[in-house]
Amino acid sequence: MINLPSHRLPAIVRWFPTGAPGSGALTEHVLTTEAGRWWVDRVIQPRAIAVECGDHVLLRGEPGALTPGELAVFADHSVEASGRFLPLIGAAFQRVVPWQRVVYVKRSQVPAARPPRGVTVRRLTARDARALTTLPPAMGWIHRTWGGPDALARSGYAWAVFDGDRIVAVACTYFLGTAYEDVACVTVPDPRVQYLALDCVNALCSDIAARGHTPSWTCSTSNRPGRLLAWTAGFRPEREYAHYAVGAPVPAGRLSAS
């Protein structure tokens, strides 16, 4: 696929919904933050379009306009597409795993708790970028949709719980939409501080409401801790959908043989 120049975007934005919760806010996030890329099968009158941000891809259009090899740029991503694309996706990657997902929307307020002594809940600033880099590698996905820890720390859209100088939880706007902000949260793997994630999410949601937006939350149906945290924070299910975790691309030789 072809990486689309930014001046061509107005002609294709209509392909994607606006004002939607969950991954529906991905395209608006990319337009606002420029922390992603747009792809098309051809620049003039494209027939297939993808928008990529972090590890996520939304794929739209006509599957027949693409070959399996053209999807190789999306290896090791999560791809959301209609069922018409499944044969193409299946032919393009060695591994395709469907993940059922739930989109929640915040429906009720939760009283703020008083953090224990030595614990601070506050908005991240540019000075906190280094602290973000000290999080365990498995938690690095939290800043990918912003382009890295520096960008997230500077964005003004992230809150963290500090135990002294150490970050133990981060909640941020993962996708920034015009009506919804999709929330993500990570907590260090320490049972003593797991409950502090709720304070972090509450602070972020108050911030989102002050901007005139509605918080949403998206997680896998198998992610019981994530679903429990969402429910406790006042989020309620809105819809379900599936995306596909894809692995390495099928080698070119096998594609040619098929």
Description:
The chain is of the alpha+beta class. It has seven helices and twelve strands. The protein has helices at residues 26-33, 86-92, 129-133, 149-155, 196-210, 224-232, 252-257, and strands spanning 2-3, 37-40, 48-53, 56-61, 78-80, 96-106, 119-123, 158-163, 166-176, 180-187, 214-220, 235-246. A hairpin with a 3-residue loop joins strand 9 and strand 10. The longest helix is centred in the C-terminal third of the chain and has 15 residues, at 196-210. The model has no long low-confidence stretch (mean pLDDT 91).
Brief account:
Strand 8 (158-163) and strand 9 form a beta hairpin. The protein is an alpha+beta fold. The chain has helices at 26-33, 86-92, 129-133, 149-155, 196-210, 224-232, 252-257, and strands at residues 2-3, 37-40, 48-53, 56-61, 78-80, 96-106, 119-123, 158-163, 166-176, 180-187, 214-220, 235-246.
Helices and strands in order:
Elements: E1 2-3, H1 26-33, E2 37-40, E3 48-53, E4 56-61, E5 78-80, H2 86-92, E6 96-106, E7 119-123, H3 129-133, H4 149-155, E8 158-163, E9 166-176, E10 180-187, H5 196-210, E11 214-220, H6 224-232, E12 235-246, H7 252-257
Parallel strand pairs: 4-5, 10-11
Antiparallel strand pairs: 1-2, 2-3, 3-4, 5-12, 6-11, 6-12, 7-8, 8-9, 9-10
Distance between the amino and carboxyl termini: 20 Å
Please state the average pLDDT score. Answer: 91
In the sheet with the most strands, the strands line up as 1-2-3-4-5-12-6-11-10-9-8-7
Number of helices: 7
User: Secondary-structure element sequence?
Assistant: EHEEEEHEEHHEEEHEHEH
Could you give the count of β-strands?
A: 12
Shape: elongated
> Low-confidence parts lasting 5 or more residues at pLDDT below 50?
none
Structural class: alpha+beta
Oligomer: single chain
Radius of gyration: 19 Å
Note the main sheet: 12 strands, mixed
**What fraction of the residues are assigned to beta strands by DSSP?**
25-35%
Helical proportion, percent range: 10-25%
